[in-house]
Automatic annotation (TrEMBL):
The lineage of its organism: Bacteria, Pseudomonadati, Bacteroidota, Flavobacteriia, Flavobacteriales. Residues 262-351 form the D-serine dehydratase-like domain. It comes from the Bacteria. This is D-serine deaminase, pyridoxal phosphate-dependent. Belongs to the DSD1 family. It comes from Maribacter dokdonensis.
Length: 370
């Protein structure tokens, strides 16, 4: 893992650029670290949104992980095809996705599928669909503990909604889902304190549910930045996602977590249009553009400054004109890996500096078969 040349290809001449290279030995390291941090593999529910690939799912299942989280029906179907035992669709179904979710349950009888709700209308809609299809749907109440993106505050309204869920004859009350992606302080001590403070109302809600003589709710909590802290909680399922491939963004913010970057962009210099300027074949269509510059961390090109990006091009200022030439290959870790993966049909698999396989990004589409 200390090899400074771990990312480069010995025979890159036939590899199309840009390509997204992945390194299974580094993914395996991240899986093992994730499991060791949580301690109990049964309290680990990784999110598959980052890689959307069956091979990486199977690597985790081979390590004993059987619970997963996902964001789309296509990702859920991929997990069903992988024969995952327990899948949480962590996106409240709306529109046609409500019926698609029911079809998913019916199509994969050996996988337990659950999903989220944060309001009574959605709860009743799913309850009606469950009744019409003679099934029972497991649901989690989505809790907003400060991110203000989805969910319901952990107050009396949440308590009433959970009670409504527990009393519905065609729904199964699973527990509480809590995503705290807004907690990203670079100081882990401060981030942990903020995480614990934000989690206190969730624990109070859990205690109030138990006072109603309702079975104690399970809790799924956190993402990658707060993963180390939720790992310390008894009985809480921790649900990191980016930990599997990691990226330059989280790597720079949270170096104390010790996950390894396992996905690297291979790019070529497309042009040297003027003095001190390099243009790479790494545009919006190949690299997530929503982050401010720098959007990648070059592994082999020092003293560069990313200045613009368009559909097919990334333009970089560079102060050493004696080294780079048009066609030269360079390697970089993306700042945000999740939307970058979704831009590729396949992941180019590298072992011992050689391409050994290509893994399809199966669930990058909106729909598979359901």
């Amino acid at each position: 893992m200390k090899d400074n040349n771990w990312y480069s290809l010995t025979h890159p001449e036939d590899v199309i650029s840009p390509s997204l290279l992945i390194y299974p030995n580094r993914i395996q390291h991240n899986i093992e670290l994730m499991i060791s941090m949580r301690g109990d593999v049964n309290l680990l529910r990784p999110h598959v949104k980052t890689y959307k690939n069956a091979n990486i799912i199977v690597m985790q299942m081979d390590a004993g992980i059987q619970k997963f989280k996902c964001a789309t029906i296509a990702e859920a179907e991929l997990l069903g095809n992988c024969k995952a035992k327990d899948v949480l669709l962590a996106m409240q179904p709306i529109g046609p996705n409500t019926k698609r979710f029911v079809e998913l349950i019916k199509a994969y009888g050996n996988t337990k599928f659950s999903t989220l709700v944060d309001n009574s209308k959605s709860l009743q809609l799913l309850g009606d669909l469950a009744k019409a299809n003679n099934i029972k749907i497991p649901l989690w109440i989505d809790i907003n503990n400060g991110m203000n993106r989805t969910g319901i505050a952990a107050d009396q309204k949440a308590l009433a909604l959970y009670r409504e869920l527990s009393e519905h004859e065609h729904l199964i009350a699973e527990g509480l889902h809590v995503y705290d992606g807004h907690l990203r302080h670079t100081d882990p001590t401060i981030r942990e304190a903020e995480c614990n403070t934000a989690f206190e109302p969730v624990l109070s809600l859990k205690a109030n549910i138990e006072k109603l003589d309702i079975p104690s709710p399970k809790i799924v909590a956190g993402g990658s930045p707060t993963f180390p802290f939720h790992c310390k909680r008894d009985g809480v399922e921790a649900s990191p996602g980016t930990t599997l491939l990691w990226d330059a963004g989280y790597g720079s913010l949270f170096p104390e977590m010790h996950f390894l970057p396992a996905a690297v962009l291979m790019t070529r210099i497309l042009s040297k249009p003027t003095t001190g300027i390099l243009c790479f074949d790494l545009g919006h269509k190949s690299l997530a553009p929503e982050m401010p510059f720098p959007r990648i961390a070059f592994l082999d090109l020092k003293h560069s400054k990313q200045i613009s990006q368009s559909e097919e091009h990334l333009v970089v200022e560079y102060d050493d004109l004696t080294i780079p030439e048009v066609g030269d290959i360079h390697y970089a870790v993306p700042k945000h890996i999740c939307p970058t993966v979704a831009k590729y049909d396949t992941l180019t698999v590298v072992k011992d500096n050689k391409v050994i396989d290509h893994w399809p990004v199966t669930a990058r589409t909106q729909k598979s078969t359901i």
